[in-house]
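Changelog note: in this version the structure field was regenerated for every chain. One regenerated record is shown below for reference.
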Amino acid sequence: MDLIKEHNKRYQFFRDITGEAMQVHREYKPGLLESAYEAALKYLLEQKGYMVEQQKMLPIYWKDVKLDQHYRMDLVVGGNIILELKALNFVNDEHRRQLFNYMHLTHMEYGMLINFGSQHLYSDWYKRYPDDKIERVRLF
């Protein structure tokens, strides 16, 4: 078995999602509402065969009690990847913390922060480990 081919197949989603985000950014350019980028990215990923949930509800608990409040995750791909989208001039640590909190609360393994609001697409991938440590993924 070719280990490189197996590795590339397993992590194809990095290239697919990043590539489709770049396509949306090239087509729409900065200046639209986040919802426009979200709808386009969802459509393109579904065309590639990914299962994508839009505005997925994330309930909030106080200890074991479910509260009458929830968060909404922009896109969840394949049940294990959170895409947090922004349409801002710049991204800061507050936006990363939002994604990290979603990853901790859901125990999802991967998250991607994407900003469509600047001239150059900003995107960063993150991985959550079983000990809840989150690190930036370096793609080559």
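Spot check on this record: The chain is about 40% helix and 35% strand. Helices lie at 3-10, 12-28, 34-47, 93-106.
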